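Closing statement on the 2-acetamido-2-deoxy-beta-D-glucopyranose sub-project.
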Amino acid sequence: MLQFMLLSLLFFQVVHIAGVPLQTPIIPMYACSSVDFYSPLLGGGSMLDNGEPLNVIISALSTPEVLTEDGIINFAKAIGFSEECLDIHLGAPQSANLGDGNGWVNQTIELRQYYGNSEIGTCLETLIGGNHFRVFDQNGPDAPSGALFLAVSQEEDLEEAHTVIPDGYDIGRDKLVKAAIGTTHFDGVTYFTTARNLTGLLAAGSIGVNHGIATDGITTLLTVTIVDDFQ
Ligand SMILES: *[C@@H]1O[C@H](CO)[C@@H](O)[C@H](O)[C@H]1NC(C)=O
Ligand SMILES: *[C@@H]1O[C@H](CO)[C@@H](O)[C@H](O)[C@H]1NC(C)=O
């Protein structure tokens, strides 16, 4: 209810500022979001998927193109990730409830760190371990921010059955964020990314977290802007 009121207020303000009649629909809402994201906790959701912390959020204030499936894949490639190794899926997909009215939904996509510039590189990651993340889209009717919630972790190699290393959630997050900050580019697209740490979304510690791995409770908010470089 509170959320609905906030949303209505937001809607009214957008309409008011734009000076257009209230009846004018503004669609799609996420294409002109004025919030970074909505807290899943306000909508009965959770900052844990089936046991992994959602420890990075790509802000809805990022360039809208980044928040699409193709867009996040290209950005991921710019910071050293690729699509999963030859579609080999190790482990079940995870699901998350972002409090947006969609309930528990499966990840949109899973990306792994790649070593070198080929699909074989991603296979190598599958064999020797590395950083990986799953993506969840906050796009349900109750909280359609368009923000992307990421569950990032650093894994052991295949022999260790892809278990997350000790501190693997914090380490995975920090590695991804470090690779993302500042200017990056892939396939002709240049990104400028800023980061801000948020507390109070995730509880620090290991309650509800897979393998009892404790985390520091920090979620890093990334704002990714596509930069035009007039070359
Ligand atoms: C999630 O994926 C699993 C495995 O592919 C499938 O069985 C399940 O129905 C999916 N759940 C949703 C909510 O789509
Ligand atoms: C966020 O917190 C991590 C862990 O404490 C730290 O390494 C990182 O520098 C912080 N990042 C920002 C942008 O404050």
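The radius of gyration is 18 Å. With this model delivered, the sub-project is considered complete and its resources will be redirected to Aim 3.
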